[in-house]
Amino acid sequence: MKRWLVLERLVKENGWSKGAEIGVLNGATTFHLLDRCPDLHLVAVDQWAMDNTVYGDLTDVGVEFVKKARGAYEGRCCILLGHSASMANNVEDGSLDFVFIDADHSYESALADIKAWAPKVRPGGAVMGHDIDFETVAQAVKDTLGNWETLNDDVWMVQR
Fold first, then answer.
1. Beta-carbon neighbour count of residue 92 at 10 Å?
2. Is 124 in contact with 96 (CB distance < 8 Å)?
3. Which residue from 133, 93, 95 is spatially nearest to 115, judged by alpha carbons?
4. DSSP letters for 12-50
């Protein structure tokens, strides 16, 4: 089961209506959730860097994401363009039902993203992410949130 299906199930089961995806890349997860969860509003965060060390130049990917999000999902998708941890300053603490972190997987970046975005989740919500099979991600989760639940497709989750 792919991560977007895991998230869709959780959104529907929990009645979540406001979330954030940190590291959206081409929007596969974002657009799946917005298509299948009509009451969901998402904050989509990415910088689509020209010098991305994993994917190369992501400028065109970002342009296409923004075009689609502003067209088909206007009013339901808030785009924050910039460094993921810094963009958390634009979101009120305790205002989200969930956050899904899938940006830079280095220990330092994953740690910074968790520290920046976890306070944005209300009590009873969930801090989640992808690629818990990366040692760097697992260590960052452990160092900030403690124990996590592992779901399909290497999704991790910590209830608040």
1. 8
2. no
3. 93
4. HHHT--EEEEE--TT-HHHHHHHHH-TT-EEEEEE---T
pLDDT digits 0-9 by tens, 90-132: 999 999 999 999 999 999 999 999 999 999 999 999 999 999 9
Q: Does residue 159 sit in helix, strand or coil?
A: strand
Question: What's the CA gap between 3 and 68, in Å, rounded?
Answer: 21
Helix intervals (H) in 88-134: 107-117
Dist CA 46 CA 67 (whole Å): 14
Rounded to 5 degrees, φ, ψ at 75 are 90, -15
Count of other CB atoms within 10 angstroms of residue 147? 8
Sheet hosting strand 96-101, strand order edge to edge: 77-81, 41-46, 18-22, 96-101, 121-129, 156-159, 149-150
95: tokens are: 């205002």
pTM confidence score: 0.94
Structure tokens at 87: 């963009």
For residue 96, give both structure tokens: 């989200």
pLDDT greater than 90 at residue 7: yes
